Amino acid sequence: MPFWQQDLESMSQEQIQKLQLKKIQNQVSKLYKDNTFFKKKLDDIQVKPGDIKSLEDVKYIPFTYKEDLRNNYPTGLVCGNWDNVIRIHMTSGTTGVPVAMAYTKNDLDVWADCMARNFVAGGLHSGDIVQQAHGLGLFTGGLGFHYGLERVGAKVIPTGSGGTERQLRLMKEWGTTVFTGTPSYALYLAEIAMEKGIDPVKDLKLRLGFHGGEPCTDEMRRRINERLGYTARGGGMRRCYGLTEMGGPMSMDCHYATGIHLWADHYMVEVINPDTGEYTPPGEPGELVLSNLSFEAMPILRYRTGDRVIVDFSPCPCGRTHPRITNFLGRVDDMLLVSGTNVFPSQVENVLLQQSELSENWQLMVGDNKGLHTLRVEVEPMPGVIISEKYIKDLEGKLHDFLEIRCKVVIMPVGSLARFEGKAVRVVDERKKI
Amino acid sequence: MPFWQQDLESMSQEQIQKLQLKKIQNQVSKLYKDNTFFKKKLDDIQVKPGDIKSLEDVKYIPFTYKEDLRNNYPTGLVCGNWDNVIRIHMTSGTTGVPVAMAYTKNDLDVWADCMARNFVAGGLHSGDIVQQAHGLGLFTGGLGFHYGLERVGAKVIPTGSGGTERQLRLMKEWGTTVFTGTPSYALYLAEIAMEKGIDPVKDLKLRLGFHGGEPCTDEMRRRINERLGYTARGGGMRRCYGLTEMGGPMSMDCHYATGIHLWADHYMVEVINPDTGEYTPPGEPGELVLSNLSFEAMPILRYRTGDRVIVDFSPCPCGRTHPRITNFLGRVDDMLLVSGTNVFPSQVENVLLQQSELSENWQLMVGDNKGLHTLRVEVEPMPGVIISEKYIKDLEGKLHDFLEIRCKVVIMPVGSLARFEGKAVRVVDERKKI
């Protein structure tokens, strides 16, 4: 399998560490000089840029939290010359102040290179015809994928999300070989294809899918592969990773699928105990902490991602030497606290999708019955399948075993639950907000 | 006012002609060698590439029609190495087979440069913060604007269309100085701003707008300027021009607003009598015929745009020496044939928007009453304005004078007609299709 930037992707550990030290020293100096927020943070703990003499000393740099980005919205964390900024992206901000990221031309180049590395590691080449169905706009996902695909030199058909029948028509007309979009949209595409009498495996030439925007379980990926007749890469949970605070989507698994490659020449990876802030022993789970080593406009250092992961720092069989997220144990943001129990929606999905009788259309309703939290799983069966009362009871038992909390299962008519062309919304929390 | 590529934009006529001859000879040779459709066309009339010895000989190259692009969809007109194609755009194809365009990296660069020239000629600079609200996707408009803005080095906030309240919030938070989107969306933005108690003139920092995607009359532009407190450029009808067959949006007016600059180093301009195919005398109206001199992937030569224009080949006061469309008399596609009379929707808009009592929310219903075509103009008044029966009669009289056909005016309740975040749909043709 080819590389996008072989020299950089297969650097020795020593080279990586040397480069990282130089780059983080540079970022700290620049931020200290240019950014009042960062300078105050360092001054408060009486650290000077010159104190970072080795990678050991990185632990003296204060953490950055999501709240820091929100409190300094929109431009409080911009560093260097504002005139060089040529792009702004941000989160939707539906749950509060958005998190924004500013980019120079060079930042966009770094980002596109990281995405190009991911795509090439996953098997994309310049002969591919790609339908790019992540929505193009303020979110980092769409343009992040677009510029990465363009950098590889693939033929990009920038459909954006939606227009499912047209997506299928274009796949036939152009002989599209690669699809990019959310995993739930890939499954919806397969559903509409079948309705329209198109057999994706026989009638389309898809060979690869790159999925971002939302997590998907191994079982969901298996269904995508089976129904669209391609190999799905990315798609969260050990396969795709990124966040606006680090610039957007940045990492994916390669064709060996041994974990998500984090590009260490551009991002420094630390894994800490979220309670103490100390490093966890190698191979142990902990919170992922990332530093952006290359961005000029808004370099965020030691960002507390809130994501619980296991990182493997040994080389991958593919020849890439950078660290990999081998286990993604959950994003703290996605976790629900239900009557004192932690529930990850991905756990529910894992149980549901192991049932061949059930479709991938489901939602989790969290309610409140006089102070007692309730969980209700609504799920559609596969078309034509009749679900018995006993089956429902068994499924409730499995969910209880797995979640350690009781939840009610309701079988919904086929086609009654919402479909999603972008990110799927699986959780409806009807509890009163305090 | 600065230039983007001063040397190229202010070449002498002699230099332009010399360059054009070299480039069109190159395109003809390449197409003849690489494209069977074009080769057959030339062979049929016994013309060889070597026969094009001067610009006089360009008239021997056969015209290309929209039907040629449709009949050869998707890739029949691609020229050269398909491997070098990295982007595909196309029209919606709602009225039939889409028109598609393929681009190499170099083609995208040429396109971005043309757009950058337009923006700089209109007053944009790298310090501007731009909210880009043309929808990003398969249409050429969105990514065409995006790459041009990026090339200038302006700070692009790629909102895409829609999310109007959020657009306004971002304008306040980021101090946005430039808005790009359809003219009708600009007016809708102003409407929502007023509803939300935001005075765009006082509360926002907008200073320029670049509008594409649909024509707008001078009166509509005046209203945009007044309500959003900025200078609107582009927006069709003597201000912005482009078509998928030539790669997308490509031309706009400069700050002198003397006509749309057509970049003659990349596009050859001819004006012909649509019936005879002969050149019209300089300064006379005729059909615009364009040849793409620089594109590699799919160069279209002598394309019959169907647009009736007057072109001025003399230099503009801004110093740019390329030809300008000084009068845009109508796009044949937009023309309605109503009981034997040609009606352009822009004529209706022109009459309506001269009435200060009327809003810019209107639509034209074309009906059929036992074989007799009918025209009904539905329009909302400005909020709070009461329209009398006499006023309606007078307006019907004005429309009759202007259109030379009778039409009925119906005043609609404020807020009852559709608003558009993208291209406005003004004509509803309810006649039976034959």
TrEMBL record, chains A, B:
Functional pathway: Aromatic compound metabolism; phenylacetate degradation
Keyword Lipid biosynthesis: no
A family per Pfam: AMP-binding
Annotated EC: 6.2.1.30
Coiled-coil blocks: none
Keywords: Ligase, Nucleotide-binding
Record carries keyword Ligase: yes
Top-tier EC class: ligase
A biological process from GO: phenylacetate catabolic process
GO molecular function: nucleotide binding; phenylacetate-CoA ligase activity
Domain AMP-dependent synthetase/ligase: 77-291
Function per UniProt: Catalyzes the activation of phenylacetic acid (PA) to phenylacetyl-CoA (PA-CoA).
Residue intervals of the AMP-dependent ligase C-terminal domain: 340-431
Subunit structure: Monomer.
The reaction(s) this protein catalyses: 2-phenylacetate + ATP + CoA = phenylacetyl-CoA + AMP + diphosphate
Entry's family note: Belongs to the phenylacetyl-CoA ligase family.
Protein name per its UniProtKB record: Phenylacetate-coenzyme A ligase
Native source species: Desulfoscipio gibsoniae DSM 7213
Origin organism lineage: Bacteria, Bacillati, Bacillota, Clostridia, Eubacteriales
